[in-house]
Amino acid sequence: MLRLFLLLILVTFSTFLQASQHPNILFILADDLGYGDVKCYNPESKVPTPHLDRLAREGMLFTDAHSPSTVCTPTRYSYLTGRMAFRLNYRGVFTGVGGPCLITEDRLTLPQLLKEKGYKTACMGKWHIGMTFFDKEGKAINKNGLEAVKRIDYSRPSSDGPIHRGFDHFFGTVSCPTTDWLYAYVDGDRIPNPPTQLLDKTPLPKHPYSRDNRRGLIAPDFDLEEVDLVFLKKSIQFLENHAKENKDKPFFLFHSMQAVHLPSFPAKAFQGKTEAGPHGDFIFEMDHIVGELMKTLKRLNFDDNTLVIFTSDNGPETLTTVHMRKDHGHDPARPWRGMKRDQWEGGHRVPFIARWPGKISAGKKSDQLLSLTDLFATVAAIVNANIPKDQAEDSFNMLPVLLGKQGEKPIREFLLQQTISLALSIRNGNWKYLDHKGSGGNRYDRARLKPFALINNAPNAPGQLYNLKSDPGEKDNLYFKHPEIVKKLKAKLEEFKSSGRSVPHRTERK
After folding, report:
1. Which residue ranges form the domains of the chain, and what is each CATH number?
2. Please, where are the H alpha helices in 246-317?
3. Whole-model pTM above 0.90?
4. Closest CA to 232 of 261, 264, 268, 259
5. End-to-end distance of the chain based on CA atoms, in angstroms?
6. Which of 32, 77, 144, 494 has the CA that lies 20 to 30 A from 41?
């Protein structure tokens, strides 16, 4: 009996020691932020981003990082699971109380993996991977639109939200905070202040970037211009409480922004702060929030032992891109072709900055090919966790790159991408094959995007092949000029689809 007791003490102490040695992790995900929206990526940006620029100076900036999808719901699924969302065959994104959660109960998530290693986990902000709410008869709703929101029985908890998928704490919104049919905050698995009336758009700002909020139901405490500052307050509260109550344990905080998704409603404190209009002000607010989170880490003495990662869920919105180019000479997608929803680079090549004092050398740049799916395997390597063979099937370990131990050899040989329509592409080195015609998302024969349509030099080709080294603007479709490369990449894409994975089968870490 004594031997068993001593063994339990030893195991408990060993778990505590391992947890105390692991870094804290702060993952900040901006929404619809383009590669060209950030000064350290685009010197011609018309919006100052001093806090992100500083983060890049103190860490590593990736120039070839990509969101798994060109829209938000599948990207968020893929980041949290290390698996491409097209494997679910789910098309589109959620609005209102659409669901159920795309992450099934048997799917290991990043926060679950970290909880097993002693982490306290929290998600603050936009969820958008699906949640189930119920009506008065206890029936699951799982539908988009206003009528579905009207059916919610707010006395009943949700059954498949963030706190059921690995997060200890959640405060945020079901879908896009200021766009979709439900304008109310979720705290844990409930909506404590239910919506009581239809959204009145009359007092809201009127400008080219304000036209993306549906007339849904709104709660009395929901101010569309202050949403991101509410998320910031909740993240700071989590960090402060952690410092008081769990300072000997590491934390994983997923700060999921509304900024800079349309409508561009910067908080009152940021209105008119830039010379790039309301959307420029919104980007400036987003950068300020990054700065406040970094200040909080320093104030609470978390700074030296926290891995901070900042990125975006996809490229810039079409309306944003069109008007920012026209009205302010600012190109959110610069220097790439395309924008949100497009398979071209502007739709999914995103800012990605990582800072980890003492581990990541300051001021470094990396041209390693990276997907947000890779966060899963990278974090697993950091905490020395084994990934089950049937999980994180599209996630590569990028820790050697972060630590400067990889050299020139690429970790990722291939990169998969998907659009809102489930159109797919595959990348190998400089070669990029799109297994479809057109953008895979936006319609460039429509008036708004016609000025950005390029001449199609291979109109009869069923797909597209580009060499990004010689043609970064994806203007010259080489489909017919290099049939052997098309054949090779299409075959590899089919292999990754049929096998259910793009990562080789893993061997268990000793």
Report:
1. 19-413 (3.40.720.10), 418-499 (3.30.1120.10)
2. 277-299
3. yes
4. 259
5. 30
6. 77
Residue with the two structure tokens 């990889």 = 406
Report the helix count and the strand count for the chain, using DSSP H and E.
Answer: 11, 18
Q: Which two tokens stand for residue 184?
A: 């109310």
Residue 460 CA: distances (Å) to CA of 450, 473, 491: 20, 20, 20
Rounded to 5 degrees, φ, ψ at 121 are: -125, 145
Q: Is 459 exposed, middle or buried (0-12, 13-18, 19+ CB in 10 A)?
A: exposed
Q: How many CA atoms lie within 13 A of 493 on its CB side?
A: 23
Identify the bridge partners of residue 26 per DSSP, sorted by sequence position. 253, 308
Contact residues for 356 (Cβ-Cβ < 8 A; gap 6+): 23, 59, 306, 307, 308, 402
As a whole number of angstroms, the distance between CA 194 and CA 244 comes to 31
Extract the tokens encoding 388: 């089950």
Q: What is the DSSP letter of 69?
A: B
Which tokens in the block code for residue 424? 């797919």
CA distance 262 to 278: 11
pLDDT digits (tens, 9 = 90+) for 48-77: 999 999 999 999 999 999 999 999 999 999
What CA–CA distance (Å, rounded) separates 98 from 92?
11
Close Cβ partners of 236 (under 8 Å, ≥ 6 residues apart) = 292, 293, 296
Report residue 234 as tokens: 């909740």
